[in-house]
């Protein structure tokens, strides 16, 4: 499971709601029980999200007037309207919301500029809020559904995560993932941010080709997520990849100040043996044969090549004189690198590549891993297969 934590600043939601209501609240006067009413937003709302509910405190200015014979009764006031938006997300990531006005408090007591009212101010405010209720509630629901689209956010993050993981390329090996389920804990609010915590159940494979067919993950709400953040990745290394790695190793060696040049590398693998054959063009022209028995020691996390045997067949008499010296040099080079500390090499590589950072739908994403280790390695007729343990695989996101 890949753990994730996304923090969305309350002000991002406040701006979203403010823009939606600015467009929805009519500028012209509206008739409410014979009163000419105008509402005006006095600033961004205050928002607090908790569990599956968003509380909104909306500052509004109210101006009202009514013709009373020869005179016009006029007045104004300021209130905080308390709106509650309950929401839920289906397993298919469909966001359902229901907003409603719950209460209001006075920011500024109403002032009658001229004349007198024949109803109480509270009664008038109740009538006004009842009249505007559907406009306010519908605008908030629409804004949350369209501009705070959880499916869109999840798809952005997963697509960006897949792209960044597949950007890792080691001799054609790439990391592929197929998320099957998103687990989400009740939403909390911390330090002015809405916090979404959860986990991604996903299959992970490191291979030359993507083995997965496209699948849309499902969402499931959980009260508390087991905080293990442990993932298992399957590694599939083909003979072609092993050939590239071995050829690269040979080409990195120098003999007598001259770089070795190898090509046409072929590997034949089986559970009991590894036979390597390559064409050496410098410093001698020869066919190089490397044979051995691969063995992975899980306790040591080291890869051995038992019964190592290196032979060289030079192309002519002149090269046959030099070939034994180059042969002994390569034997020493191989033995120096063996056994291979697999987990140490993985740690060295991940320290270079991690953490990953990218943008997804305006959200700053960071991917980090605490530890990666090989638990099991097997050899067969087509290459190497391994099971890799990934601890504390965490994705964090921040939207300001």
In short:
This protein has 400 residues and is an alpha+beta fold. 26% of the residues lie in helices and 51% in strands. The chain has six helices and 24 strands.
Write the layout of secondary structure elements.
Elements: E1 2-9, H1 10-24, E2 30-32, E3 35-41, E4 46-50, E5 53-68, E6 71-89, E7 95-114, H2 121-147, H3 150-166, E8 174-184, E9 188-190, E10 193-207, E11 218-221, E12 230-238, H4 239-251, E13 254-255, E14 258-259, E15 261-269, E16 274-282, E17 286-297, E18 302-314, H5 317-337, E19 340-341, H6 342-353, E20 356-360, E21 363-368, E22 371-380, E23 383-391, E24 394-399
Parallel strand pairs: 1-24, 8-11, 10-12
Antiparallel strand pairs: 1-10, 2-3, 3-5, 4-5, 5-6, 6-7, 8-10, 9-10, 12-23, 13-14, 15-16, 16-17, 17-18, 18-19, 20-21, 21-24, 22-23
Helix pairs in contact: 1-2
Report on the biggest sheet.
Answer: 11 strands, mixed
Structural class: alpha+beta
Average pLDDT across residues? 84
**Order of SSEs, N→C?**
EHEEEEEEHHEEEEEHEEEEEEHEHEEEEE
Helical amount: 25-40%
Q: What is the domain total for the residues?
A: 3
Q: Any idea what the shape is?
A: rod-shaped
Low-confidence stretches: none
Tally the beta strands: 24
Terminal Cα separation, in Å? 26 Å
- Helical region count? 6
Radius of gyration: 34 Å
Strand content: over 45%
Explain what the structure shows.
This protein is of the alpha+beta class and 400 residues long. The chain has three domains: 10-148; 151-236 and 344-399, no CATH class; 239-340, no CATH class. The protein is 26% helix and 51% strand. The strands form four sheets. Strands 1, 8, 9, 10, 11, 12, 20, 21, 22, 23 and 24 form an eleven-stranded mixed sheet that branches. Strands 2, 3, 4, 5, 6 and 7 form a six-stranded antiparallel sheet that branches. The chain has a five-stranded antiparallel sheet with strand order 15-16-17-18-19. The longest helix is centred in the middle third of the chain and has 27 residues, at 121-147.
